[in-house]
């Protein structure tokens, strides 16, 4: 059974339809890129899975539970962890406090404190820079550091599926390479299932995995990132030449 | 001189506690809660049996202080949480202006409920009379109550700071105040955080009620409104949503009122409040974002 399944999802903002009848599913351990131009509905889709944007129609299932219309905090408890666009660090909290916010939901389980402490050390091992700045205000970190912080924060909830919305946004290319290096290492380490939204398909072709290309709120291509990659089909799909 | 300092501190304490109660709720749900003053009034009247007689029939007011204080704090927290569940929960998705109007309406409901039970006549009671004895400190004679007010406020402020900084729930509240939807995506329960903020805010209202009741000895259903206005101004000057700013501005307002009371020429003293509000306007002209601008003006979800 798939870990995440969307069927016939439609999202509307008053009269504007952002996503129209989108269906796809993901298996445990998969890496899936959703790419497409601005306004394709990629972020809306992620926010709908996270439960912060209501869906106008369709159904979402996560880890065997229907989560359509559920509160974000309950969806997070099923193992979905979101890194939103623009990073959203809690700027007035310290780096370490940012990392700890998401551990509270396991507070009913036995031994959560020691597990949270282990988890914290694991995140610091992956991102040593965060440890150096652990007691500093998170709002004062650089863009690249903040991106690592929110990825670390997402991991602290011990998720089954991590969704990341445009990790490249506003980062210098070399910093962006570093972020991806860590992500791929983490994925190998923890068998993470990754759902990544990017505007450009270049990164997906580099990393590999599955790629869905969206345009105008619909899926136009779905397949292996590397084989989809080089053809003209992708360009046509991306820019919509066939319409003209 | 010392007398002025203590007057300023004790009046400032009231405003600071009031401002804190408003800032806490604003922080987590962008609601300016105008019913806060009426929660204060409710807590004072919780000390009496309902009756429309001119004479106050004391009920809980007779309890020894170690029972009286928890009782009133519980009344405040309970009423505040009830307001959240019955009223404000329905307005979560509404815009801040709608919520504010709802809070006005709720305030009137509470006030007229008190009016119905107690009539509009002010009642006098002597609450904790042992506190009105004077004590002598560094050559100044001060009412013991003033000293206790200041100490109690400090204890509350330190306790609240520790709570927000050191506990898991405090961390969740701070995260939610800065970016509510992100906090929820990390598993922070919206209802728990909001109810916690209301409970704390209600307990703060109760603390004000106790202090104010003991200070003035008169209970009036309008009494919450006057403190509420000053407290609201303090939250705005402090930077809406900034807890530190609210406390600082509360004390500044208290100090400004007391200093003007002393310094203004005799003829101008009746207009003291006009001068205080004038100073408020000046502050806002130069720092429209408040003394300490709050972070996290992100939209809540």
Q: What would your notes on this structure say?
A:
The complex is a heterodimer of chains A (244) and B (301). Chain A has 244 residues and is α/β, with parallel strands linked by helices. Chain A has helices at residues 42-50, 72-77, 95-101, 112-126, 128-132, 143-156, 173-190, 202-207, 225-229, 232-239, and strands spanning 4-13, 16-26, 31-35, 57-62, 65-66, 80-83, 161-165, 193-198, 210-215, 218-224. Chain A has a domain at 1-89 and 158-237: Rossmann fold, CATH 3.40.50. Helices cover 38% and strands 25% of the residues of chain A. In chain A, helix 3 packs parallel to helix 6 (143-156). Chain A starts with a strand and ends in a 5-residue tail after the last helix. By secondary structure, chain B is mostly helical. Chain B has one domain (2-222). Chain B is built from eleven helices and four strands, in the order H-H-H-H-E-E-E-H-H-H-H-E-H-H-H. The interface between A and B is medium-sized, with 28 and 21 residues.
SSE order of chain B in H/E notation?
HHHHEEEHHHHEHHH
Beta-strand fraction estimate of chain A:
25-35%
Average per-residue pLDDT of chain B, rounded, comes to: 85
Round the Cα radius of gyration of chain A to an integer and report it. 18 Å
What gap, in angstroms, lies between the N and C termini of chain B?
Answer: 50 Å
Measured as a percent range, the helix fraction of chain B is 55-70%
Helical content class of chain A: 25-40%
Strand order of the largest sheet of chain A: 6-7-8-3-9-10
Taking Cα atoms only, what radius of gyration of chain B do you get, to the nearest Å? Answer: 19 Å
SS-derived structural category of chain A: alpha/beta
Average pLDDT of chain A, rounded to a whole number, is: 88
Shape of chain B: globular
Q: Do you know the CATH topology of the domain at 1-89 and 158-237 in chain A?
A: Rossmann fold
Name the poorly predicted regions of chain B: 296-301
Low-confidence stretches of chain A: none
Q: Oligomer, anyone?
A: heterodimer
**Tally of separate helices of chain A:** 10
**Main sheet makeup of chain B:** 2 strands, antiparallel
Protein name (chain A): ABC transporter ATP-binding protein
Keywords (chain A): Amino-acid transport, ATP-binding, Nucleotide-binding, Transport
Domain ABC transporter (chain A): 4-241
InterPro entries (chain A): AAA+_ATPase (IPR003593), ABC_transporter-like_ATP-bd (IPR003439), ABC_transporter-like_CS (IPR017871), BCAA_Transport_ATP-bd_LivF (IPR052156), P-loop_NTPase (IPR027417)
């Amino acid at each position: 059974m798939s870990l995440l399944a969307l069927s016939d999802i439609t999202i509307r903002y008053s009269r504007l339809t952002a996503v129209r009848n989108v269906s796809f599913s993901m298996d445990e351990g998969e890496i899936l890129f959703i790419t497409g131009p601005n306004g394709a509905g990629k972020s809306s889709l992620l926010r709908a899975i996270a439960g912060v944007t209501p869906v106008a129609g369709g159904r979402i299932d996560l880890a065997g539970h229907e989560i359509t219309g559920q509160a974000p905090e309950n969806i997070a408890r099923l193992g979905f962890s979101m890194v939103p666009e623009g990073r959203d660090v809690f700027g007035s909290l310290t780096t370490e406090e940012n990392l700890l916010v998401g551990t509270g939901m396991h507070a009913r389980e036995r031994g959560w404190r020691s597990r949270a402490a282990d988890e914290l050390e694991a995140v610091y091992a992956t991102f040593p820079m965060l440890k150096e700045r652990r007691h500093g205000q998170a709002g004062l970190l650089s863009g690249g550091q903040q991106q690592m912080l929110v990825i670390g924060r997402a991991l602290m909830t011990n998720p089954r599926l991590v969704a990341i919305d445009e990790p490249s946004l506003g980062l210098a290319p070399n910093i962006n390479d570093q972020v991806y290096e860590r992500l791929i290492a983490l994925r190998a380490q923890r068998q993470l299932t990754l759902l990544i939204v990017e505007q450009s398909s270049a990164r997906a072709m580099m990393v590999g995995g599955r790629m869905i290309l969206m345009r105008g709120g619909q899926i136009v291509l779905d397949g292996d990132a590397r084989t989809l990659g080089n053809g003209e089909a992708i360009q046509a799909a991306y820019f919509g030449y066939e319409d003209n | 001189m010392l007398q002025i300092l203590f007057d300023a501190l004790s009046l400032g304490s009231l405003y600071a506690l009031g401002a804190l109660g408003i800032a806490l709720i604003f922080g987590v749900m962008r609601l300016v809660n105008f019913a806060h003053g009426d929660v204060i009034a409710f807590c004072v009247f919780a000390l009496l049996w309902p009756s429309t007689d001119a004479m106050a029939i004391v009920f809980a007011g007779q309890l020894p202080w170690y029972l009286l204080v928890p009782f009133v704090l519980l009344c405040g927290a309970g009423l505040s949480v009830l307001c959240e569940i019955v009223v404000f929960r329905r307005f979560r998705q509404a815009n801040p202006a709608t919520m504010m109007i709802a809070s006005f309406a709720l305030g009137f409901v509470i006030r007229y409920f008190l009016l119905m039970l107690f009539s509009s006549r002010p009642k006098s009671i002597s609450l904790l009379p042992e506190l009105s004895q004077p004590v002598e400190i560094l050559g100044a004679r001060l009412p013991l109550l003033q000293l206790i007010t200041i100490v109690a406020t400090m204890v509350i402020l330190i306790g609240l700071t520790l709570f927000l900084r050191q506990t898991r729930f405090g961390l969740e509240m701070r995260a939610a105040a800065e970016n509510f939807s992100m906090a929820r995506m990390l598993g922070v329960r919206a209802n728990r955080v909001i109810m916690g903020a209301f409970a704390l805010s209600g307990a703060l209202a109760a603390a004000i009620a106790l202090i104010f009741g003991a200070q003035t000895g008169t209970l009036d259903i309008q009494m919450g409104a006057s403190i509420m206005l000053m407290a609201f101004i303090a939250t705005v000057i402090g930077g809406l949503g900034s807890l530190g700013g609210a406390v600082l501005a509360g004390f500044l307002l208290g100090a400004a009122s007391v200093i003007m009371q002393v310094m203004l020429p005799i003829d101008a003293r009746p207009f003291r409040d006009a001068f205080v509000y004038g100073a408020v306007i000046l502050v806002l002209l130069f720092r429209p974002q408040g003394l300490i601008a709050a972070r996290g003006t992100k939209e809540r979800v």
